[in-house]
Amino acid sequence: MASSLTFKKKKVAVIGECMIELSGQPFGQQAQYFGGDTLNTALYLSRLVPGMNPAYVTALGNDNYSRYMRQSWLQEGIDTQFVLTLDGKLPGLYAIENTPCGEKSFHYWRNDSAARCLCRHELFGSVVDDLKAFDLVYLTGITLAILPDPDKYLLLRALETLQEEGVKIAVDSNYRPALWPSSSLACEWIGKLYQLADIALVTADDEDRLLGMHDSPPLIIAKRMHSMGVKQVVVKLGQEGAMWSQYGLNGMARGNKVDRVMDTTAGGDAFNAAFLAAWSMGMEMHECCHWGNKLAARVIQHKGAIIPRDYTGYLTELMNV
Questions:
Q1: Strands of the chain, DSSP E
Q2: pTM of the model
């Protein structure tokens, strides 16, 4: 049990983009919030390990939306010292539109967002130097996809520098075809990211779409990751749970029963947060996967990416894996 463990508090940083979110019908009532895959993971990680204060690395503007984001993240216990400011830039924007049949469609305006300019910010090099003191850096394929190609190289070079200093790199491909010119280019760039990763937390469906495959056995997916140098691999399988693989060993962590799925948004992000929370406490991979399954099962039974902060039942359950 986590409560019986004594551990040195890990320093974790998350690199990515958070956008303004609009939900509701166009030209009707729309709710405003913010969201993003990496921010979801950072937020849940902060809630699961009080006092960890994971650092979020991104770029924002100096507008009111950006200021609101920073304030909200601070209230969630997220360290914002590496949130860089770019004058004249704004956060990206996306809208969630609900169709009459209950499906969701997403529309994005992010081509000129501040986060796309993160790696060319004059202080980015200083941020990388500071991250050398961290235990782990987490990012996704989306973090890489939104950057111009020259900046992709800058990010990969920064990760290589951190790895040389002993910082662990954790990656989720989060493959989104709309963000890439072609699947072959996506495969090439994400492959470069995997080659720098110590931990891969991937979804089977994403990997199949990336490679143009269908229903690939999770062990085959894991072997592909291992062939690129990833030491610890988790393949997320939705309601079936997750398969883990490391050092020639592998196993299955069965998914938790869910009575009613309300919204699968951020289920994978939540899994990653809980996995990393357990990892930070020195747990074995199968325990980390059980944490991931439990939190993901909770999150998808609620609307929206983030469970209300006053809902703490999942915390108690996770501590009794």
A1: 12-15, 19-24, 30-35, 55-60, 83-85, 93-98, 104-109, 136-140, 168-172, 199-203, 232-236, 241-246, 249-254
A2: 0.93
